[in-house]
Amino acid sequence: MASLIYPAKPQPGDRVAVVSPSAGLPGLFPQVYELGLRRLREEYGLEPVEYPTTRIMGADPRDRARDLTEAFADPDIAAVLATVGGDDLITVTPHLDDEVLRANPKPYFGYSDNTNLLNHLHRLGIVSYHGGSVLVHLGRPGVLHPLTADSLRAALFTAGWYDLTPAAEWGDEPRDWHDPGSLADEPAMFPGAGWRWQGPATVVEGRTWGGNLEVLHWLLAADRVAPAASLVGSILLIETSEELPPAVEVYRMLRNLGERGLLAGFPAALVGRAKAWDFGRRLTPTEKVDYAQDQRAAVTRAFAEYQPDAVLVFDVDLGHTDPQLIIPYGGEVRIDAVSRRISVRY
To answer: What superkingdom does the record give (predicted)?
Structure first.
């Protein structure tokens, strides 16, 4: 695998870019966005700098790419944070100035559709950060979830090893952003049952690659994934979105990664807790349990066929559920299946 560099970290008091390369949802939900900005200032001591397309829905991909390029080029910007995900960042990355990004590496935080940019930076040799959303997590109703807050703080400001912690409680039923009054109320939370481990009792170390599984499939179709040989030894990072893909599609997407030669090269995978509820699909508690179980079975089946010796860790809080742990993308991870411990190097 090609070497990747960790960009220099911001310090409290620094200016950080706040961008919407996927969707300009801050323009539709300003109350949530402003809460996120306030917490960025008050909780982390960082000064957000908004770019022209941050609040614009449907902004031209070239304009969004310009904002990203300028954020990386500006010597006064210490990190870049995405406001939220979306569904068309794949149209933005071709317009980026890669020479500017290479010459000015900075920590980039985002997930979901931001998998497009995380993968792009990975191919440029830059470590980025899977997780962090100004709207979803910094704008969380009630208070910041302590696991999210601590993980984000460590990822922003520190460079050492950090032990991930299983969530004692978790949620996937957010408050309705259309109701400003809902920001005062904590979202519904459910008891956590810890991580689920499968595979050999061994210790695996490597650099991560992956992201949102649906977006990875788009990237494969667009031929924007590095050759399988260059990713051998990587630890696969996968999670699914609020679109709740059925288990058969999760299996098929992973099967296709297997046919590409990718799965056989991954000695381990961190699998995000499956989001199993959305406003358009309000599954019952029993249906949610069944959905998550079916998804775990689909992942298990694919790995059994293409990489049966892999260590699999399920229900890690790294995707579309609450809390959210930050994972360095292209950064180092240690999975200890003996002591059942996961550590990441920020």
So the answer is: Bacteria
